[in-house]
Amino acid sequence: MRVLILITCGLLITGFTSAQSGESTKKEQSQAATRAGTDIVPLPSIKTLTGTQASGKKLFVQRCSVCHLPALPSYTAYGPLLDGSLVADRGDDAARRQIMQGSARMPGFQYTLTPTEIDQIVVYLKTLDLSKKE
To answer: Which CATH number belongs to the domain containing residue 132 in this structure?
Structure first.
């Protein structure tokens, strides 16, 4: 009889806990859905890019977007959002140096990316304009 009571109590607690977590998940999904239209960072279509820019976009998405673009509408980017105005302000050489050497929060890619690949990323960054939403 005690075993039956313990099993019943366990099932009730499990059901109650899963019901609560389901409600919070639904709330988080609805919040993310309402913010999705405003927080998504638009990237230029591959059809509008040159070959070098398209290669740079591929590398940017593979290597840089993890930190420099928000993964989901409810997240914020770990590093600064990168665009053409940032490259124009600091210059191409500074952008290349930053990608190669990194910083305290950013790894350097001098051993994993070739100079040509780094140039492709810089050329692609110049096409980004994150001040406007498409």
So the answer is: 1.10.760.10
